[in-house]
Structure formats: structure tokens, C-alpha cells
Write a structure and sequence with these properties.
Layout (H helix, E strand, L loop, with lengths): L1 E2 L7 E2 L2 E2 H15 L3 E6 L4 E6 L5 H6 L9 H11 L5 E4 L9 E4 L7 E7 L2 E6 L5 E7 L2 E7 L6 E3 L10
Parallel strand pairs: 1-4, 6-7
Antiparallel strand pairs: 2-3, 4-5, 8-9, 9-12, 10-11
């Protein structure tokens, strides 16, 4: 199972966290006589069961673009499709109840854009503390403090729209 959340697109060395995950999962997949590859996005997507080597192109084609990855649902989907040990590649902590964990990414604080639409922008803060952000929307600059785990949203209007305001 490979985490496909947007945080996996963060730069890490010469590539991304997802690139690191692919590099570390590929040898495991190639050795598996039978495997299921699960893309853990907002809606998990499974490939297989099939010989592991047959899933190589699917692994290499994975993209990290979902706002978040539903690891729990992805693990459950993989277990339904194949009774075998579950290995999870993610930039988050090891999920409970899995047999293998491939951790990628450095433990840096993570603040970024999690959603964009016409006239709309949302920020996400994966750090354990509030982080400052500066956002330009509709020609206006906003300086905000993004609480941990929060997702402030901005509209192209004179005032930002924050949760609870």
C-alpha cells in the first residue's frame, strides 16, 4: 500500500517522498509471487492480485495528488483482495496492525496548499504547532497563523474565511 496524499509530493533530496516510496517498495513487489498494490488516496484504488512484477508499471505510474490518504480504508481493501502481509509506504507514522512499514521523508514540519479552485484556496498544517503563512488571493496579501491540523480557506474577497469565523 502506497500513500498517495499530497504530502508525498513534497521534495525530498533529488525527488519526492513518493519517489522514495516507489524506490523502496519496488524490490519487495518484484519478489512477491502474488501481490496487490493499493494506492491510498482519498478513495483507495487497488491493482491485482497479480504477480508482483506485473504491478511494476502501476507502481511507477502512481501520483501523489489527493488532499489526504485514507490509509485505514486502503489497508482494509488490500486485506480483502489478498490474504498476505500488508506493507505500508507513507510519510506518516506506522499504521497499527500492519506487518511492514516503509517510512519516507524527513520529520520536517509540513505546511502547504491542500485545495485550489476558482476563487478558493485552502492551507493544511501537518506540524504539531501553529505555523505562519502568507497568501496572496485576488491581489490582496493575507498573513495568517495556521493552527496544527487546521485547514484555513481563503476566497478571493477582502477578508479570508477561516473555520469557525
Amino acid at each position: 500500500m502506497v500513500d498517495a496524499s499530497a504530502s508525498m509530493a513534497a521534495r525530498e533530496g533529488k525527488g519526492t517522498r513518493l519517489d522514495l516510496a516507489k524506490e523502496r517498495v519496488l524490490p519487495l513487489l518484484e519478489r512477491a509471487p502474488e501481490a496487490v498494490l493499493v494506492r491510498a488516496g482519498e478513495r483507495p484504488e487497488a491493482f491485482g492480485p497479480a504477480p508482483g512484477i506485473a504491478l511494476k508499471e502501476k507502481l511507477l505510474a502512481l501520483e501523489a495528488k489527493d488532499r489526504k490518504g485514507d490509509l485505514e480504508a486502503a489497508i482494509a481493501l488490500g486485506r480483502r483482495l489478498l490474504k498476505a502481509p500488508v506493507v505500508v509506504a507513507t510519510d506518516g507514522p506506522p499504521p497499527p496492525g500492519v506487518e511492514g512499514y516503509v517510512g519516507v521523508g524527513s520529520p520536517r514540519e509540513n505546511l502547504g496548499i491542500v485545495a485550489v479552485a476558482a476563487g478558493f484556496l485552502a492551507l493544511g498544517n501537518g506540524a504539531g504547532r501553529p505555523l505562519p503563512a502568507q497568501v496572496e488571493v485576488g491581489g490582496k496579501t493575507f498573513r495568517v497563523e495556521v493552527p496544527p491540523g487546521a485547514t484555513p480557506a481563503f476566497r478571493a474577497s477582502p477578508k479570508p474565511s477561516l473555520p469557525g469565523s
